[in-house]
Specification:
Layout (H helix, E strand, L loop, with lengths): L7 H11 L24 H5 L2 H6 L23 H7 L3 H7 L1
Length: 96
């Protein structure tokens, strides 16, 4: 964020520049501060209320998508697979 120091005169000028919730701005023609959208700050209670739950669509019961991950199949290129197929490969690789 930014560290801003406001002067008393700047605070007094805010109402004339941006107006208030009920009064238009003196500088910006026709600009009124937007009204509050929520009257209750208890969002969890609102989301769990019966009115909201009735308006929601039911959950989709879709089958789980298969994973896009493909298991490596070439043991010559993939070291981890090569070690799984032949545990002695680790000792052989160190000796070489």
């Amino acid at each position: 964020g930014r560290f801003i120091i406001w002067t008393k005169a700047a605070f007094e000028k805010l109402d004339s520049i941006f107006g208030t919730f009920t009064q238009e701005s003196a500088v910006k023609k026709g600009f009124v501060l937007p009204a509050k959208m929520l009257t209750s700050a208890d969002v969890t209670r609102i989301m769990q209320s019966e009115e909201v739950r009735r308006a929601l669509k039911p959950k989709k019961v879709a089958p789980k998508k298969p994973s896009r991950y493909t298991k490596p199949s070439n043991g010559m290129k993939n070291r981890r697979l090569r070690l799984a197929l032949n545990p002695f490969e680790k000792k052989r690789a160190r000796a070489a």
